[in-house]
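Narrative summary of target 7.
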Amino acid sequence: MTLEKSTSRTNNHEYMTMQWLSDALGGPVEQVTRPFQPCASPGWRGVDADIWVGERAGRSLLLKSWHPETSFYIEPSNSRVAAAHASQWGIGPKLPSMYEHPCDSSSVDHLVMEYLEKDWRVAGLQDMASETFRAAVIAAKRHFHHARWEQQSVLPRIDPFEEVIGLATLLSHIHASSKSPDKAGIYYPVQLPEWMTFVKSAQHVIHSLSRDVCPVHRESDVSNIMVHLTGHIRLLDYDSAARSDRFEDIGLFLFEAFEHEDGAREGFEQWLGYFDEGEYQRAWLYGVLDNLRWGLIASLRSAYSPRSSLEFAKYAGWRFFRAHQALQASWQQRLLCVR
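Modeled conformation, tokenized:
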């Protein structure tokens, strides 16, 4: 895994943004706006890509163009393939015809999709209190797991433990290097070696078990869900989509939806229709892993992103805090229960 400091966007990229939107809209764009400003903390929003909305003849489309500095954790071709399938199934935003075929969506670093506005809104944590809303989210993610994929193998099979170990190794190397000009600005938690002991122990446990590997969304942030006035939802952001253990999606959902374990256990039963302690603990460890993953990504971005105004270190601290709090509750005993 390598990471290089990127430079700011060029005027040529702005020209290409206009061209991509014009092509998708069928003619020159009449107006281009940014629907929101990038924010790394308290929420990770508009950070991984430039987001633009183009309008023509009463029609609006949203363009997402990934930043080069995200290449160490995002592969745009995977995101495009997953988004194209989700569009076909009605669980994600619709894509224009030139983007809707998954097999034709694997070679460009941008994506154009319908702009959900008017009767749509961004979901918030308050929505997770609704059993009906949670049921809609669960149904969409289960569909993503089990629907027929044209080329399922296009999505990579990923070991989330190896991914986190690789990120931690990179962060430790940068921190230890006295020659690194960014060492002073990087967020490095002193508990990292302890957390990696958990990650490697959990990896050993999961690798000793059978795994139901399938396409998973791997997205926890509730703000990447759009809600219609009718209650219908759409899942956004397929940047982390991969083939992995389906319990990874369950764990990410539980950590986002519930503040306390009593609620998380009820949520687990709502997802599967039954409760099993070993499987619940399996989902739990993926929830912890996701917080460590995003904490490490934000830490690395704090050192290498040219957009120094974004509070990457603050976001990293919050993610690490959530993981640390979860690991206070005897994780060794939890791993003994996993199945």
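The chain has a mean pLDDT of 90.
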